[in-house]
Amino acid sequence: MNEKDMLMRAIKKYDFALYELNLYLDTHPHCSNALAYFRKYKDLRDKAVEEYNKKYGPVTADQTNTDEGWKWVDEPWPWQKEGN
Amino acid sequence: MDYGYFDIMQMNAAGMPATEPKNKPQRPTDRFPAETPLGMAYVPFQTMNTMYDPEEGLERGTIYPELDFPLQYTEEGMP
Known about the structure:
Strand content of chain A: under 5%
Radius of gyration of chain B: 16 Å
Largest sheet of chain A: none
Distance between the termini of chain A: 14 Å
Structural class of chain A: mainly alpha
Helix content of chain B: 10-25%
Number of strands of chain A: 0
Largest interface: A-B, 15 and 11 residues
Shape of chain B: elongated
Shape of chain A: elongated
Order of helices and strands of chain B: HH
Number of strands of chain B: 0
Number of helices of chain B: 2
Number of domains of chain A: 1
Order of helices and strands of chain A: HH
Number of helices of chain A: 2
Strand content of chain B: under 5%
Oligomer: heterodimer
Distance between the termini of chain B: 23 Å
Helix content of chain A: 55-70%
Protein backbone atom coordinates (compact mmCIF):
# COMPACT_ATOMS: atom_id res chain seq x y z
CA MET A 1 0.00 0.00 0.00
CA ASN A 2 1.46 3.32 -0.94
CA GLU A 3 1.22 6.32 1.33
CA LYS A 4 -1.89 7.63 -0.39
CA ASP A 5 -3.76 4.40 0.25
CA MET A 6 -2.52 4.25 3.81
CA LEU A 7 -3.75 7.78 4.48
CA MET A 8 -7.11 6.96 2.91
CA ARG A 9 -7.31 3.81 5.01
CA ALA A 10 -6.64 5.87 8.14
CA ILE A 11 -9.39 8.34 7.19
CA LYS A 12 -11.82 5.48 6.59
CA LYS A 13 -11.14 3.73 9.88
CA TYR A 14 -11.38 6.91 11.94
CA ASP A 15 -14.55 7.93 10.13
CA PHE A 16 -16.01 4.53 10.94
CA ALA A 17 -15.01 4.72 14.61
CA LEU A 18 -16.53 8.20 14.82
CA TYR A 19 -19.75 6.97 13.28
CA GLU A 20 -19.93 4.07 15.74
CA LEU A 21 -19.32 6.44 18.64
CA ASN A 22 -21.97 8.73 17.23
CA LEU A 23 -24.50 5.91 17.41
CA TYR A 24 -23.51 5.16 21.01
CA LEU A 25 -23.48 8.81 22.07
CA ASP A 26 -26.97 9.33 20.67
CA THR A 27 -28.27 7.08 23.45
CA HIS A 28 -25.57 7.88 26.02
CA PRO A 29 -24.98 11.61 25.52
CA HIS A 30 -23.26 12.10 28.87
CA CYS A 31 -20.84 9.18 28.68
CA SER A 32 -17.50 10.88 29.33
CA ASN A 33 -15.60 7.82 28.18
CA ALA A 34 -17.29 7.86 24.77
CA LEU A 35 -16.85 11.62 24.47
CA ALA A 36 -13.13 11.27 25.17
CA TYR A 37 -12.79 8.63 22.47
CA PHE A 38 -14.78 10.80 20.09
CA ARG A 39 -12.42 13.73 20.64
CA LYS A 40 -9.40 11.48 20.21
CA TYR A 41 -10.53 9.90 16.93
CA LYS A 42 -11.86 13.20 15.62
CA ASP A 43 -8.44 14.76 16.11
CA LEU A 44 -6.71 11.83 14.41
CA ARG A 45 -9.17 11.95 11.53
CA ASP A 46 -8.84 15.69 11.00
CA LYS A 47 -5.05 15.36 10.91
CA ALA A 48 -5.25 12.53 8.38
CA VAL A 49 -7.65 14.49 6.18
CA GLU A 50 -5.53 17.60 6.41
CA GLU A 51 -2.44 15.68 5.38
CA TYR A 52 -4.31 13.95 2.57
CA ASN A 53 -5.61 17.29 1.30
CA LYS A 54 -2.15 18.78 1.36
CA LYS A 55 -0.57 15.89 -0.53
CA TYR A 56 -3.26 14.43 -2.75
CA GLY A 57 -6.09 16.91 -2.88
CA PRO A 58 -9.62 16.88 -1.53
CA VAL A 59 -11.31 13.75 -0.23
CA THR A 60 -14.69 15.41 -0.58
CA ALA A 61 -15.52 18.38 -2.76
CA ASP A 62 -15.87 20.71 0.17
CA GLN A 63 -12.18 20.20 0.94
CA THR A 64 -11.14 21.67 -2.40
CA ASN A 65 -8.41 24.28 -2.10
CA THR A 66 -9.97 26.94 -4.31
CA ASP A 67 -6.68 28.84 -4.60
CA GLU A 68 -6.03 26.49 -7.48
CA GLY A 69 -9.60 26.82 -8.80
CA TRP A 70 -12.09 24.01 -8.65
CA LYS A 71 -9.48 21.24 -8.78
CA TRP A 72 -12.18 18.79 -7.75
CA VAL A 73 -13.15 18.14 -11.36
CA ASP A 74 -9.59 17.19 -12.27
CA GLU A 75 -9.77 14.20 -9.93
CA PRO A 76 -10.81 10.92 -11.63
CA TRP A 77 -14.58 10.43 -11.36
CA PRO A 78 -15.69 7.41 -9.28
CA TRP A 79 -16.84 5.51 -12.37
CA GLN A 80 -13.49 5.99 -14.08
CA LYS A 81 -11.06 3.12 -13.72
CA GLU A 82 -8.35 5.19 -12.08
CA GLY A 83 -10.99 6.64 -9.77
CA ASN A 84 -11.27 3.52 -7.66
CA MET B 1 -37.39 -29.33 24.69
CA ASP B 2 -36.53 -26.46 22.42
CA TYR B 3 -34.36 -23.74 23.91
CA GLY B 4 -35.67 -20.19 23.80
CA TYR B 5 -33.46 -17.16 23.18
CA PHE B 6 -32.73 -16.66 26.87
CA ASP B 7 -31.83 -20.31 27.33
CA ILE B 8 -29.38 -20.18 24.45
CA MET B 9 -27.80 -17.04 25.82
CA GLN B 10 -27.15 -18.85 29.08
CA MET B 11 -25.82 -22.02 27.47
CA ASN B 12 -22.30 -23.02 28.34
CA ALA B 13 -19.71 -24.16 25.82
CA ALA B 14 -21.03 -27.71 25.85
CA GLY B 15 -24.31 -26.37 24.49
CA MET B 16 -26.22 -27.44 27.59
CA PRO B 17 -28.34 -24.92 29.51
CA ALA B 18 -26.21 -23.37 32.23
CA THR B 19 -28.76 -24.32 34.85
CA GLU B 20 -30.76 -27.53 34.85
CA PRO B 21 -34.19 -26.53 33.45
CA LYS B 22 -36.56 -26.36 36.43
CA ASN B 23 -39.96 -27.93 36.01
CA LYS B 24 -41.40 -24.54 35.08
CA PRO B 25 -39.39 -22.68 32.36
CA GLN B 26 -37.55 -19.61 33.70
CA ARG B 27 -39.73 -16.55 33.04
CA PRO B 28 -37.78 -14.22 30.70
CA THR B 29 -38.77 -11.26 32.89
CA ASP B 30 -36.41 -12.66 35.56
CA ARG B 31 -33.65 -11.14 33.48
CA PHE B 32 -35.26 -7.70 33.47
CA PRO B 33 -36.06 -5.11 36.18
CA ALA B 34 -39.17 -6.08 38.18
CA GLU B 35 -41.29 -3.27 36.80
CA THR B 36 -40.64 -4.32 33.19
CA PRO B 37 -44.06 -4.27 31.50
CA LEU B 38 -45.26 -7.45 29.84
CA GLY B 39 -46.19 -7.48 26.18
CA MET B 40 -43.74 -4.72 25.21
CA ALA B 41 -40.44 -5.03 23.38
CA TYR B 42 -37.40 -4.25 25.47
CA VAL B 43 -33.79 -3.92 24.30
CA PRO B 44 -31.18 -4.26 27.05
CA PHE B 45 -29.30 -0.96 27.39
CA GLN B 46 -25.75 -1.03 26.12
CA THR B 47 -22.95 -0.13 28.48
CA MET B 48 -19.50 0.83 27.26
CA ASN B 49 -16.86 -1.79 27.96
CA THR B 50 -13.81 -2.49 25.85
CA MET B 51 -13.76 -1.41 22.23
CA TYR B 52 -11.93 -2.63 19.16
CA ASP B 53 -9.31 -0.21 17.91
CA PRO B 54 -10.38 1.54 14.67
CA GLU B 55 -8.46 -0.78 12.37
CA GLU B 56 -10.04 -3.92 13.80
CA GLY B 57 -13.40 -2.17 14.09
CA LEU B 58 -13.42 -1.43 10.39
CA GLU B 59 -12.65 -5.11 9.74
CA ARG B 60 -15.28 -6.46 12.11
CA GLY B 61 -17.93 -3.92 11.14
CA THR B 62 -18.32 -2.63 14.70
CA ILE B 63 -16.13 -1.25 17.46
CA TYR B 64 -18.23 -2.90 20.14
CA PRO B 65 -17.29 -6.56 20.75
CA GLU B 66 -20.72 -7.16 22.28
CA LEU B 67 -22.34 -6.29 18.95
CA ASP B 68 -19.98 -8.32 16.81
CA PHE B 69 -22.26 -11.05 15.37
CA PRO B 70 -20.80 -12.27 12.07
CA LEU B 71 -23.66 -13.82 10.10
CA GLN B 72 -21.80 -16.98 9.25
CA TYR B 73 -19.70 -18.51 12.01
CA THR B 74 -15.97 -17.95 11.58
CA GLU B 75 -13.56 -20.91 11.57
CA GLU B 76 -13.27 -20.64 15.36
CA GLY B 77 -16.86 -21.85 15.53
CA MET B 78 -19.69 -20.12 17.39
CA PRO B 79 -18.98 -16.42 17.93
